[in-house]
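Homework help board

Subject: predicted structure for assignment chain

Our instructor gave us this sequence and asked us to write out the predicted structure in token form, then describe one feature. I got the tokens but I'm not sure how to describe them. Can anyone check?
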Amino acid sequence: MFVLTVDQRSSRRDIDRVADLLTELQDVPLVRPFDRTAGDEVQAVADDPALVVDLVLDLLRRERWSIGVGIGPVETPLPEQTRAGRGPAFEHARTAVERAKNAPGQVAAEGDDTEATADVDAALTLLATVVLRRTDQGHEAVDLARQGLSQARIAERLGISKQAVSQRLATAGWQAELAGRELVRRLLERADR
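My token output:
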């Protein structure tokens, strides 16, 4: 199981962004939905490693959150409210989010299997580096590619040449992101065994 604990960065100097985040993520198919745990922090429970990767990358792009991924068992049955959950994955998520506040990419993972979790952590950091260095134009092209559009259709949508799309996707690290997503998914799966 995976617990995500997400803390708003610079919350004392910024508006409270938790309510908006909860609204934007309310339809994500989680085991337990994102729930405010305390002040500027939210938490959710997931069982799908691919969904965890999607959520981490979504939150990274927002550039306002420290993200902790806890890997391991949870006490069952899970309570209705996420914040009432207990178990090692919740504890690991707490440790991870604290470490994420000072980590490259503002993301960290913790779990019982320290070697497997270290691999997840390293891969998340590399993937975060790719995504966080991307320009707005790069994000725009990648978003369309993730929807399954061909480069010709992306070019049409953006009003640029197919060659320019190819260059944007290459500069944005689209292929590296695809490989990184799959790597992190597999590593999360392995760390949760």
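Reply (TA_rk): Your tokens look well-formed. For the description, you could write something like this. The radius of gyration is 17 Å. That's the kind of observation they're looking for.
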